[in-house]
Amino acid sequence: MVSQEKTRMNVYSQLRRIIEKHTHIDEQPFTLNESIALSPREVRTIEFLGQSGNVNVTNVATHFNFTKSAASQLVNRLVKRGFISKNISKHSDKEFQLSLSPEGEKASQLIKSMTKQRLEMFLKMTERFSAQQIATTSEVLEQVESMVDERLKRFK
């Protein structure tokens, strides 16, 4: 019989491997179609703008835990590529409101479709688990997320 401590260590190792694999995926370009390749940050930014209204660079920085400078560079890159429109805010001539351009809307729809496919794969994969197993997993992941949030605070 495997000890509880050894099982917890195995779970920790599995989480580390998953994180490392996800980090590798996050470094890969995201091909929406034969002519559109985006970085994962660009994809998430387009996705965020597609779900949100009245967004500015500060909102992007806050949402993704980026510096304002990094968010501004990312937004400007997406503006140059034609995915985002940047207009002077109605509230302040020092602030820009961001929205998806028609090309950005197309990309957003493709991203939504791909996200839906991933969700469907996840839901199908988890059908075999009991409600209790899912609930326990959710509790564990909540605690892991809290731990990661605490670690993130050190970098602010």
TrEMBL record:
The organism's place on the tree of life at top rank: Bacteria
InterPro entries from the UniProt entry: HTH_MarR-typ, Metal_resp_HTH_trans_reg, WH-like_DNA-bd_sf, WH_DNA-bd_sf
Cross-referenced Pfam families: MarR_2 (PF12802)
The UniProt record lists the keyword Flavoprotein: no
DNA-binding as UniProt keyword: yes
UniProt entry keywords in alphabetical sequence: DNA-binding, Transcription, Transcription regulation
HTH marR-type domain residues: 8-146
Name of the featured protein: MarR family transcriptional regulator
Organism from which the protein derives: Pseudodesulfovibrio nedwellii
